[in-house]
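Before the break, one more example. Copy the sequence into your notebook; we will annotate it together after we see the structure.
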Amino acid sequence: MRQMVDELVEKPKEPETDDRLELHSMTKKERKEYKKKKFKETTEGMTPAEKRRYTFYYHKEKIIVATISIICLVILAVTLYKNTRPTCISYVVINCVDQFEFNADAIDEYAKSIGKFDGYQIHGDTNVYAKEDEYNASYEANPNSQKYISFQTLADSHYYDIVFSDMEGALYCAGMDIFYPIDKYLDQEHYDKIKDRIVVLNNMDGQPAQLAIDVSDLEFIKSLNVGYNDVYIGFAGDQESNHVAVNDFIDYLFP
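Here is what the structure looks like once it is written out:
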C-alpha cells in the first residue's frame, strides 16, 4: 500500500503532448488505438516499476473514481440485501442508564438460540428517554417536542416488538397508549405463561388495563444491564410480524 501511495505522489516522466486536433478528428476506435500506441512509445525502455508509476500517476483520477464506485456499489448491495432480510426482533430500551454498558450481545445470543440470527435483522434502540411528568411539562412548553414525537411515531408505525422500561417509562407508554393491552394482545397459551407477572397501569383514558409485564428477576433481563433493577416489558406493535417476535421472546423467557 505504501508503495502504491509513493507511486501516486512521485511524478513520473512527462508524456509527450497529444495533438488535440488530430485526436478530435479520430473515431472512438482510432483514438483508442492511437492512445495505446502512444503509451507503448512513451513507456518504451521504462522499468516495470516506472511503467506502473506512470500508469498510476496519469490515470489516478480514473482509478480513484472506479475504486470509490466499486466500494459504494458493494456497500449498497450489502445494505439492500440486509434490508430485505426478515426481522428477528426490534426492541427499544427506555431510560437506559448507560448505552455503552448495555449488553447487546445478549440479544444476539437470544436470536441464535431460537435459530433466527443468520439471515435476520436485529433492530435495537437504547437512546429513548421518556418520563410521564417530564413529557407533560415539555408538552405544555412545546407541543412539538421532537424528543417524544420521534419515539411515538416509530411506536405508532409498529416498528418495535418489545419495549424494555423502568416504571417511569412504563407509565409514560401506558398513558400514551403505546402499550397494547396484554390480555387482548396475547393468545391464551402465551398469556398463561405471564399472567402472574402482569402490571396494571392507567391508559390514556385513565382506565386501568393490563399493559406491562414484570421481568425484573429473570437472568436474561439482568444480563442486558439496562441500569435499573425493576424492568418491565410491553408490546408496541400490532402487525403479524410483531406478534411472531413477541411469541418467540415469551417462549424464550418462559420455556
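Residues 70 and 211 are 50 Å apart (CA to CA). The beta strands are 87-94, 121-128, 162-165, 198-202, 208-214, 232-235. Try to locate both features in your own notes.
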